[in-house]
Amino acid sequence: MNNLISFFSVNTSLNASQKNKDIYAFCMGVISQFFWAMSNIQLKTYRVYYPNNFSTQSVTFWRSFTICLIAYISINKKNQIITPISEIKYKFWFFLRNIGNYIFLLLWIVELIYFRVSTAQCIANCSPIVVLILSSLVLKETFYLRYVIGVLVSLIGTIMIILNDKKDTNANLKNKTVFDICIGLCIALSHMTFLAFSHFGLKMLCKEHMTPEVQNFYLGLFNTIPAFFVMILEKNTGIDNLIYVLYACSNGIIFYLANYFMAEALNIMEINKFIPMNYLRIVFIFIFGFLILGEHVYFTDFIGSAFIIGFQVYNVSYPVQKYEDNDLKAKFIDDMKK
Predict the structure, then answer these.
(1) Is 198:263 a contact under the CB 8 Å cutoff?
(2) pTM given for the model
């Protein structure tokens, strides 16, 4: 009897501990999405506020330099060790994440020329399609039917929001043609793919127990170096406008926080369960886009967001370990009922 009581006591304690970890990871995820939304909105404003100083490379350099500097200071303060590249196990994902981040940032800045921030973010949030495949093939995470259903639901919501771009009357977007939209979609889909690679690479580095500070250091370094050389070749450093430089540096601080809290969440939560939380950015994007940029919000935006956020809430609250016996038939029936 004592052994039985001890068994239930230990399991109850473990369940409570796991529940607290899940709540902590969820809070970290929500905070990260808030900062990602802030970062994306700010990137949209550079052309508006600093048309004479703006260049994608100068923005990339100053914000990446700031990320690298903050990470380095934090690493020294916490007495952490910067993992040598030669000792990194998942080198492929390490380079794909860090170099891919440089590419998807440039694609994102160009993409914002063609779409509203909210629309561009909706397209980017289709990245779970790629992440689901990678997590199942590489990490061997359990693949649930609800993920497929959720992706389809989110795609419906995304399409509803994208269609509003043809009605947008923003001065920079009102002359868009069908060709412009097609070009923008090609750029957006490329950005979405690199974004998925970056997120998945972050998870792989978390598996190596690489701290968020070290991850941010390498991320900033691999973005600072190429941006510096291209910026010099373009002869547009933006240094003649100190306010512009500080504005770009502030974006680096916001990006650092977004990436830090995301890494904290992924240290605890499975990536399949976390990735749908990216849809929370839509809510923040709509609010910031309307209040700061004066972007139009349509009724169908709310309907599309309801589809997207509805699945996110459902997926985060769903008990992933409900079927430990891998009863596929039972999972299929239950998912269909849900």
Answers:
(1) no
(2) 0.71
Q: Say how far apart CA 263 and CA 260 lie, in whole Å.
A: 5
Across the chain, the runs of DSSP E, i.e. the strands, are none
Q: Give the number of other Cβ atoms within 10 Å of residue 77's Cβ.
A: 9
Enclosing domain of residue 109: 53-337
Contact by Cβ (8 Å): 41, 285: yes
Residue at 161 is within a domain: yes
Distance (Å, rounded) from C-alpha 75 to C-alpha 153? 41
Please provide the average confidence, as pLDDT, over all residues in the chain.
76
CA distance 210 to 204: 9
Q: Are 245 and 268 in contact (CB under 8 A)?
A: no
d(CA 229, CA 226): 5
Would 215 be classed as within a structural domain?
Answer: yes
**CA–CA gap between residue 262 and residue 280 (Å, rounded):** 13
Question: How distant, in Å, are the alpha carbons of 6, 47, 97, 231, 293 from that of 55?
Answer: 64, 9, 23, 8, 20
Tokens of 130: 């790629």
At 113-122, the pLDDT tens digits run: 777 766 776 6
Q: For the CA atoms of 239, 244, 249, 251, what is the dihedral angle to 10 degrees?
A: -150
Higher pLDDT, 10 or 253: 253
Q: Is residue 8 part of a domain?
A: no
Total domains in the fold of the chain: 1
